[in-house]
Amino acid sequence: MPGVAAVTAVKAGRVAVVLKGYPRLSETFIAQEIAALEQRGLEILIVSLRHPTERRTHAVHAEIRAPKLYLPEYLYAEVRRVLGAWWRVRRWPAYRQARALWLRDLARDPTPNRIRRFGQALVLACELPDDIGRLHVHFLHTPASVTRYAAVLRGLPWSGSAHAKDIWTTPEWEKREKLAACAWLVSCTAANRDHLAALAPAGKVELVYHGLDFARFPPPPHRRASRDGRDAADPVVILSVGRLVEKKGMDVLLEALARLPSDLHWRFVHVGGGPLSDALERQAQALGIAARVAWRGSLAQDELLLEYRAADIFALACRIARDGDRDGLPNVLVEAQSQALPCVATAVSAIPELIRDGVTGLLVAAEAPADFARALESFITDPARRVALGEAGRARVTTEFDLHDNLDRLAAKFGLADRSAPAQRVAAG
User: From 3.40.50.10240, 3.40.50.300, 3.40.50.1480, 3.40.50.2000, which CATH number describes the 236-400 domain?
Assistant: First the structure.
């Protein structure tokens, strides 16, 4: 354990970015943020609570130079590593404080996960290189607990980025205490920011949209075909992208598709995997639309870009799940609009911060398959309107959701200059 003087000396050192899992196909926004911060000169160590479960990665993952530290996912699987960390850390001056903090949390949340969090924090604190000057965590639930305990043990400041599930499934007492303890926190939607700011000390929480790296999502090379659903040989293509979990509302979207008039010709493409895959395929069979549905599974970013460009409509039927989980602002909507793909979505959480109904896309109420079907039908039969709203959506995201513009505020918090690579950005543009 470095002494107080040593800790002070390395405050401006590398940043350890703590993630639940890395790399993950569904968390492209985190990878592009890390890559962009590295381009601006930030030295990063990636700390992951879990090993990757997917064989495929995005191109941006190959661009990231940061070394990786994987913590024991299950304590029993690496007992010697955990006990060795505890044996060393228990002698540190801050151990009693960290242990008391954890025991107080455990009394309110007596779960195996809470025990695992402290074990992972012991390993992180023990194995963290001495040149780390700050911890920064993505997600306010489990990863932030590990980060907070480790920060106390090492006497380091910590900051965070909060997104969606981590906000809405974390108890209020825990959010309040973490927000009070961290140096600062950013969140990716105004809805999230307002909720968290009400629980935090003044000025602690700020809004920073994820944004999109338009070098990776350049304008589509061709104008879309004017399909209108009348030609069986050339059906309108409806695309949706997202994990197959409750909050994505895929069952509602399938029900909406089944309600479309029988004389309209369409096909539906879904990209993404998840635990509800089998149930949703059975639902499509029961609704009689399985022959029109293609389940693509998870795709790399370059493959997904081709799907955006091949589609005519993008659809996302997000909802608030029974446990309170919900999306923030789904990045796939920004990606779709970057390709001038007209979007139909539900007015849930922060989606209205992106889509202006009737101007840059169409919004309907959640849990309303009949309304969703009517919105889809209006787009299917009116290709000119699709083009108009698709182009309006693209104009707005390129103006207001550029990764580098939004990253300026986050970069400043890490002590980086506004722009470290203007020539690179000009070339990318």
Answer: 3.40.50.2000
Lookup: tokens for 47: 């700390």
Closest CA to 56 of 301, 303, 306, 300: 300
Q: Structure tokens of 9? A: 């000396």
Sign of CA dihedral 126, 132, 134, 135: negative
**Residue 243: is its pLDDT beyond 60?**
yes
The Cβ of residue 225 has, within 10 Å, a number of other Cβ atoms equal to: 12
d(CA 302, CA 184): 34
Q: Does domain 4-211+402-426 have CATH number 3.40.50.620?
A: no
| d(C-alpha 319, C-alpha 367), whole Å | 7
What pLDDT shows up at residue 12? Answer: 61
Mean per-residue pLDDT over the chain, rounded: 92
What is the per-residue pLDDT across 14-42, written as a single tens digit (0 to 9) for each? 999 999 999 998 888 899 999 999 999 99
Query: How far are the Cα atoms of 27, 38, 114, 259 from residue 405, in angstroms, in the given order?
Result: 20, 16, 38, 41
Neighbour tally for 170: CB within 10 Å: 19
Tokens of 265: 């010709």
> From the CA atom positions of the chain, what is the Rg in Å?
23
| CA–CA gap between residue 200 and residue 184 (Å, rounded) | 10
pLDDT in tens, 318-355: 999 999 989 889 999 999 999 999 999 999 999 999 99
In the DSSP assignment, the letter for residue 364 is E
d(CA 227, CA 234): 7
Strands 14-19 and 132-138 come out as parallel
Q: Where are the domains of the chain?
A: 4-211+402-426, 236-400
Q: Quote the DSSP letter at residue 270.
A: E
**Has this prediction a pTM greater than 0.85?**
no
According to DSSP, the β-strands at 158-162 and 236-241 are unpaired
The distance from CA 336 to its chain's CA centroid, rounded to whole angstroms, is 15
